[in-house]
TrEMBL record, chain A:
Protein name: RNA polymerase II transcription factor B subunit 3
Renumbered residue ranges of the record's region Disordered: 216-255
One annotated Gene Ontology cellular component of this protein: transcription factor TFIIK complex
Source species of the chain: Penicillium diatomitis
A UniProt-annotated Pfam family: MAT1
Automatic annotation (TrEMBL), chain B:
Region: Disordered, residue numbers: 49-69, 370-418
Protein name: RNA polymerase II holoenzyme cyclin-like subunit
Keyword tags: Cyclin, Repressor
Domain Cyclin-like intervals: 88-173
Function statement: Component of the SRB8-11 complex. The SRB8-11 complex is a regulatory module of the Mediator complex which is itself involved in regulation of basal and activated RNA polymerase II-dependent transcription. The SRB8-11 complex may be involved in the transcriptional repression of a subset of genes regulated by Mediator. It may inhibit the association of the Mediator complex with RNA polymerase II to form the holoenzyme complex. The SRB8-11 complex phosphorylates the C-terminal domain (CTD) of the largest subunit of RNA polymerase II.
Family stated for the protein in its record: Belongs to the cyclin family. Cyclin C subfamily.
Gene Ontology molecular-function annotations: cyclin-dependent protein serine/threonine kinase regulator activity
Length: 376, 418
């Protein structure tokens, strides 16, 4: 039965359902599908029917309007799988929230479940209209965040690709190095052995022991070379680990700035986006306006005979003496402390200091002295 | 008000502002300690004298005990009169120099004296020696340079430079090492400057009362009630008030406790109030709103609402009245025969109750200067310095004793010997 089925399908594949031409007659024949209705037809049929613009599907009973540019080759043998993969891709493209964007792991899981439900609805054709509407609304509202996340994904993909390539390249280099090293070693060994033999042949018996020692040294050198190789591998692994950490350490960048608030109605548990407050200009006086005064407004100049003399005096002016300084100082001193009511404020201060740390220092000293006196 | 916060940062506000009661209690405490000390010192002196002269110590011992009770010490009030007399003397001393010392320097010296005698008694340190030193320190802190020799030469009598600076460290301790004195003089200049600007129609409205214009201010100052002494013009009036206020600040403000009880700004406004009341009231009104008449009681509620400074203004006018009363209560000692008489009595009394151990400051001061373990935050009252000296003495004795103990002499003998 199974074998028969397989043969059947093979047969079906070989024959175009529209023009009934078979692969047997045309070995270059290619079959295309359109994701609108997933009906299969051969390339020549597509060219023939859809070259002059959109037309309805030639399969009997299917009234879908198809366009030529949407036709593509089938990836999976099973049309159902093909369709599901398409749907999944489309939905994932829109609902591309990332884990970092959620408050908790739980919220992210809920989102994944919701997404699966939507995909299942579309695949099984339950509530298609409603689901599609939801999806469209969401896509429109979150255009920016979707785009940002897509960009992120792309970046990740390319960087991942790059990393793989780099790793491969490194592995290749490493292998090559190892091979070369091994080759060198072998050659060296051979050379020393030859040297050793020739020396043994030419030298006296006394030299034999010394020569043997030298042979040992070569072994040592080899092992140290191997050790350095191991060291290099370890370093590389550490570097890999480091880069991984860096990758996970930089979430929430571009995708974050998009308005997730809009999507909050559809997807729950999205993290509230804290737009960082624009940094205020640095205020060295902590809110104090330097020139602000409460009791007076300083004028440009004051009619005051005593100061007019100074103003005319070049010896005073030459030093850079500014009368403005004098004005501000005298006026400040005129009013500094006008509203300080010493009687009240000092009484209050004394009361608090008596409760707290120390009595007024003089009386404390007096008390101490009195005690000392008695002791004496 | 920002200006008030500026003042609150000063050491004058933080360390040298008192209420009347706290001022009194500090003075009486100082007096109490000093009199105890004087009695003890006199008794010691007598015992020493007796033991050195005769063997009849035994019978005179009881006599000494009864006599000791008879030593009459100064009261806080008498001390205050004495200090005030020497404050006046400081002014005279400043006059003797050619050119005379600036008012600022003299005023600072006076305040130094007053501050010093809050925690020290004239019975312990005679004001005559402290006075010159205070004036000398004031020339330094107020940027009026004078060499010590020049300064000492200016003092009548045969005062050597060493005499002048002998109590210098002591004085600084008494001042808690705060040399900043905020005077009302410059503030007065500022006020007069503004008043004359108003009189010329150039006045600017205060930040909290923007409804004033220079014209309305000028009209206000011209329509003031006439001054106590008739003047030809507004400028005359301001000038006269200025000089009168200045005189008051130079004398009454210095010789009373005004600096301890009020802020410099309040002091000069109070002095202006004494000199020319309508003018001062008008000036305050331009700053804080007003006027505060009992006639517009009906409008009081509305004006209260209009003017957020109303409360400050009423409070301030009361404080200024108090301060003015204090300033007016002052009469110079030298002009009053009765006061001079009592002063002579006090001086005589002081001669008898002067602490004999503190007379020679030149010798004494050398010792404390070597022991400058002083907390600048607390005033070093006389009792405390002595306590420190005593403590150090016992410590050194202990060290010497330990030198002969079982563990042998101390480890670094060389360093202590030299």
């Amino acid at each position: 039965m199974a074998s028969k089925n397989g043969i059947d399908r093979q047969d079906e594949d070989e024959v175009c359902p529209v023009c009934k031409s078979s692969r047997y007659l045309n070995p270059n024949m290619r079959f295309l599908i359109n994701p609108e209705c997933y009906h299969k037809m051969c390339e020549s049929c597509v060219d023939r029917i859809f070259s002059s613009g959109p037309a309805s599907c030639p399969v009997a009973g299917c009234r879908k309007t198809l366009r030529k540019n949407r036709f593509r080759q089938q990836t999976f043998e099973d049309i159902g799988v093909e369709r599901e993969v398409d749907i999944r891709r489309r939905v994932m493209h829109i609902l591309n929230r990332r884990e970092e964007e959620f408050d908790s792991k739980r919220a992210y899981d809920d989102f994944l479940e919701q997404r699966e439900e939507i995909i299942a609805n579309l695949v099984c054709r339950t509530d298609v209209a409603k689901t599609e509407a939801q999806l469209q609304a969401y896509a429109q509202e979150n255009m920016q965040s979707i785009k940002a996340n897509q960009l992120l994904e792309e970046q990740e993909a390319t960087s991942f690709q790059k990393k793989i390539l780099m790793e491969q390249e490194e592995a290749r280099l490493r292998q090559q190095m190892a091979r070369e090293e091994y080759e060198n070693e072998r050659r060296e060994q051979q050379a020393t052995r030859e040297d050793f033999l020739t020396r043994l042949a030419s030298g006296s018996a006394v030299d034999a022991a010394a020569l043997a020692r030298e042979g040992n040294k070569v072994h040592l050198k080899k092992s140290s070379a191997r050790r350095s190789e191991e060291e290099r591998i370890r370093q590389k692994q550490a570097a890999l680990r480091g880069s991984e950490g860096k990758r996970t350490g930089t979430p929430l960048t571009t995708a974050d700035t998009a308005g997730a608030v809009a999507g909050a109605g559809f997807i729950k548990g999205l993290r509230k986006i804290k737009t960082p407050e624009p940094e205020k200009p640095y205020d060295p006086f902590m809110g104090l306006v330097p020139g602000k005064r409460d009791y007076y407004t300083q004028l440009e100049s004051y009619p005051y005979a005593f100061l007019d003399k100074l103003r005319a005096d070049t010896t005073v002016q030459a030093g850079g003496y500014a009368l403005q300084e004098y004005y501000s100082r005298t006026l400040l001193e005129a009013f500094a402390g006008l509203g300080c009511f010493v009687q009240e404020e000092v009484a209050e201060r004394d009361a608090t200091s008596a409760l707290g740390l120390s009595k007024p220092a003089s009386t404390a000293g007096a008390a101490m002295a009195a005690v000392g006196e008695k002791a004496a | 008000m920002i200006e008030d916060d500026f003042y609150r940062a000063s050491s004058q506000y933080r360390l040298w502002s008192y209420t009347e009661t706290s001022l009194q209690s500090i003075r009486s405490a100082t007096n109490q300690i000093a009199s105890d000390r004087v009695r003890a010192a006199l008794r010691r002196a007598r015992e020493q004298h007796l033991s050195s002269t005769t063997s009849a110590a035994v019978e005179s011992q009881s006599e000494g005990a009864t006599e000791e009770k008879n030593i009459e010490c100064l009261t806080p009030d008498e001390e205050l009169v004495l200090v005030r007399y020497y404050c006046e003397k400081t002014v005279e001393l400043g006059e003797t120099y050619r050119p005379p010392l600036p008012t600022n320097v003299r005023a600072t010296a006076i305040q130094y004296l007053r501050r010093f005698y809050l925690t020290n008694s004239p019975m312990t340190y005679h004001p005559k020696s402290i006075m010159a030193c205070a004036l000398f320190v004031a020339t330094k802190t107020d940027n009026h340079y004078m060499s010590l020799r020049q300064f000492a030469e200016g003092i009548p009598g045969d005062t050597t430079p060493e005499d002048v600076i002998a109590p210098e460290f002591l004085l600084m301790q008494g001042l808690r090492f705060t040399f900043d004195v905020r005077h009302p003089f410059r503030g007065l200049e500022g006020g007069v400057m503004e008043l004359s600007a108003i009189a010329q129609g150039q006045g600017a409205a205060a930040p909290h009362l923007p409804h004033h214009t220079s014209d309305s201010l000028k009209r206000g100052i011209l329509s003031l009630a006439p001054p106590p002494i008739a003047c030809a013009s507004v400028h005359d009036r301001i000038g006269r008030a200025h000089s009168a206020t200045r005189e008051l600040l130079k004398s009454a403000a210095q010789m009373t406790d005004a600096y301890f009880l009020y802020t410099p700004s309040q002091i000069w406004l109070a002095a202006l109030l004494v000199a020319d009341r309508p003018l001062a009231e008008f000036y305050l009104d331009t700053k804080l709103g007003g006027p505060l008449d009992s006639t517009n009681v009906g409008a009081d509620a509305s004006s209260h609402l209009q003017n957020p400074l109303y409360e400050l203004r009423t409070k301030l006018s009361k404080v200024l009245m108090d301060c003015a009363a204090l300033l007016q209560s002052y009469t110079p000692l030298s002009s009053d025969p009765a006061q001079m008489k009592s002063l002579k009595r006090i001086a005589k009394k002081l001669y008898h109750c002067q602490n004999p151990e503190k007379v020679n400051l030149k010798r004494d001061v050398a010792a404390p200067r070597l022991n400058p373990a002083v907390d600048s935050a607390t005033p070093m009252s006389e009792s405390e310095t002595e306590r420190l000296v005593k403590k150090r003495k016992t410590e050194s004795q202990q060290i010497q004793q330990e030198g002969h103990s079982v563990f042998g002499p101390e480890l670094v003998p060389d360093r202590t010997k030299h």
